[in-house]
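FAQ: What does a multi-protein file look like?

Like this. Sequence, then tokens, then the next protein.
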Amino acid sequence: MTIAVCALVVASLTACAPELRASWTPAGWDVDGQIVAASVPGGPDVGDPASVDTLDMRLRNDDIGIDARWAALPGNPAINAVLEGLVRTAVSDRASVSGMGYRPEVFDAGAGLGERGCAPGATTTRATEVLGDRSGVVIVCEIALARGSVFAESIRTVTGVDGVVASDETTTIYTDLSTGMVVTGADLFTDPAALWTMTVDTLRRTFGSLSLAPVRAPDAEQLAHFAGVLEQASLQDGKISIPVPDSLHAPELDGLVRWQGRSRDEKRAVEFTTAVASSALTPMGLAVGDAVGAYAGPMSAGSGFERMPCDLVPCMAMTLDDGPSSLTPGFLDVLEAEQSAATFFMLGKNAQRHPETVARVAADGHQVGNHTWDHPYLTDLTDEQVRAQLGDTRALLQQLSGQSVGTFRPPGGFIDDHVLALAAQPAIMWSVDTRDWAGPSDEELLTFAIERPERSTIMLMHDIQNGSARVFGDVVAGLRDRGLSLVTIDQLFGGAVPVGIVRHGPLL
């Protein structure tokens, strides 16, 4: 009896069921983004960082506790001041904390300060590895984007005490070199709240939410936090990738089991097309996201053409006398490879023999100085002879180099007030004389030339000496290893060489 009743009920229910529609689908929603693996600004394909010609910078000062690496672009575009400003701010802050004034510091040989500029992976390396066992601030950098006329550099600042990290912050600076516009990552976005909504909506759908309720607008605290997240966003190839930090909280996510149980080791990002997110991007943001093609930024013609902040990094002037000669091109090759500059005090008779070398010295950005026609001691000459020695040489050097030759070096260092008045130009002497002409061994010359200079040194070598030619590459590399940047006389004085007899650079 019971079985019969049940059968009757089932049959009746079946007869009453609505007819199934094959075209029916569940209610759904539009999702603008997708979850991808997180990347640093610029992502895995930032263009070709190796194609970017940079001026690689480095400073270290143990008194106040700072070690900084960054890269500038040739020609001193506006982004250089912003990047340098980040370093200067860190230096000022450390000087205040330490209670000590800042001066560029030079270290002993073997300091390792020849490693300069940006390095791949600098922004993703573990903070403890960046800091090491140091106390204070360590600044590193990485090229974040280099496509078309768009360039971006990420500056990472890690602070700590005895190797224990206290903070780790990265700021990415973008520029469109075609317009000169410079912005931070935050300035790429005009409507962070809209991107918050899109990001949270994509995350909640991905992690299993079935709610059709709109995402709540972020409060002030959420928006401020998200603005910091956007600083690390990557824009390229028509897409924007927003990293998902562990600290992100939203009501739509906090109750999701899959969200709470996600792996913290797998760093994620939410990716949108710039077309979908266009209303939330500034014109610069769109330019960055849509940048394509080979990098078309400036190339340096030579380090001597570039601005060097000698109040921030320790500078010295390398000077080379008595050339040009058949050895001079080798000196020029070393300087080019080591991003260094020098001043060549030339003899008129040698310039006449090697006009192409004079032209190359100038074309490579080095400074040409007057060392008389054939190296007489000026204090032994008549006024007419002094004028001829300096005047004829100056006229020839200016003709061959295209430079205005505004300094001279008296042969042997013989100078007095009368000769100085006749010359009517700064007389550039030296504070370190390698005496390479006296025939020291290569080892003796190398050791002396590396260990003796300090900040603001003017060092004398000769580009006619075989010994100097043999060791010059190691000398320049060794000086840079100690933290020194080799510049021209003009660069050492910021373009304002003082009148009179000059024996060294500014002593800050």
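And here is the next protein:
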Amino acid sequence: MKELGVVTAILTSQLMDVIVNTLSKAAMKKGMNNFVFVMYSNAFAASSLFLFTFIFCRKRTLPPLSYNILAQLCVIGLFSCSNQLLKYFGIAYTSPTLASAMSDLIPAFTFILAIIFRMEKLDWKAYSSWAKSIGTFVSIAGALIMSLFKGQAVINNYQPFKSFHGKRFVSVQYEWVLGAVFLVASSFLLSVNFILVKRILREYPSEPVVVLIRLTLTSILSVPAALISEKDLKALRLGFNMELIAIGCSAIFVLSFGGVIYTWAIGKTGPVYVAMFNPLEIIFAVILGTIFLGDSLYVGSVIGAGIVVIGFYAVLWGKTQEKVDEESTVCSSELHNNEATLLLK
């Protein structure tokens, strides 16, 4: 029952993430500035989460914030700001569908980082380790295909994204590859964040406080970039339009409460388990992107996504088999101990 609650929370957060990606793409088509979007959405998210954190944590005894934890939170804030900017630039040059497809790389990146930081173990005598390793490399290969091979359009609704006041300076193919590179880098930084969050929660087990500090730092770090990117300060004013809707949904559903859900799930189950659900975003993204944005669907994306999903399920099978093997080992150990105790009597 507890695991079902974790799964439901993660899937709900992923659906909201895809909806916000779709809204942000629609706002970008109307001229929304990515730096301003990140600044406002994180500031609003921190404001909305502050009261909740105060009520939730006021009766809890928490350990003091050490310099080590603050330093790690600053790193998370920097990576989170960079991750969001890369993600929205990637969406601007490609589509929300490709952004969700590239998130399939997160399980592979997280698995590799978890091995490096000794959060995951490899036993080359076990099939589960082989499945996880091969699945990781297959996922990366699929992502490379999506990035470098576009192919013919299966569903052709392409409308050029107008950047820098409508003056296009690179070809459509170059934009697609550039956007894909941004999305790959964003996925990697998010995987690093998963690992760092797990390490922080071991010493400071308060998900709302960790998310609140991260949001505050991200909003502060994005202010200089937003001011430099917009020479006219009047452009920083918000009106009741698609931009405000996208910022509000991102702040409330993705960054604040969605961030708490992801952080809580990482603390309960680990970064690799949470990351394994990211490939399911592509289902939501294809439906929403095609219906509401008129996104095109290309052969390269279909083939690459299929390969990535195969790699994802190989990793998922490996994790499941590993858990079964661990439970079997524990049961065998307990049975052996019981037999030894009976013999002694």
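Q: Is there any per-entry metadata?
A: Some entries carry free-text notes. For the entry above: The CA atoms of residues 210 and 313 lie 31 Å apart.
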